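hiii, so i know i said id send this last week but things got crazy w the move. better late than never?? heres the sequnce for the chain we talked about at the cafe, plus the structure i predicted for it. fair warning i was half asleep when i ran it
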Amino acid sequence: MMAHTRFLSTFFGCLVALLVGCAGEEDSNSAGNTGAAFLASEFTGGVFQLSVLSVDDSCLDGSLQLLFMPDGNLQPYQLANPTEFPAASELPSPFVVRLEAPFSTLPMELTGVDGNRLFVAEAQQNDVMLGVAGTGECTADMTFFVSLTVSSDDELALATSVILEGFDHPDCPAVQSTPCEVVLDMRGARQ
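okay and structure toks below
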């Protein structure tokens, strides 16, 4: 479940970053604009390999970073399974992020388009085993908020915010605040 939680957090963090970073782009129909942003409404969907580039853990002083980037933060962490995204023309449309064991799947839904952004409905995972050293059977409930920016038909940027709460087991460490947030910066490349 930890790997699943890492993936989701990363996924949502990247989506948010894309939305924020593209707000000032010029309209693709502007005269003389040769570097126009790709319009998400033209996104054809397909299979993408997602990677976590960074993790900002404001829950456990960085301990949750290994949940989302188990190989450490020196290299992007590539998720074990590719993710199939629906085309913008098919929205609203569900999709599934397949995570590696002990996680299974995270059902999500693309709901709309605006400029170079695709909107993703929030997703929920309850009783996720954190698997952080010294936390024993500690679980948390996680809500994922994803902002997805379509850089091109072959490249995605995802900003994922994972809100954690419900640290109710006696093995859970003290968290800085409840709920708390882990932000993931992610990228997706067409396979």
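btw Residues 2-21 form the longest helix (20 residues). thought thatd interest u
miss u guys!!
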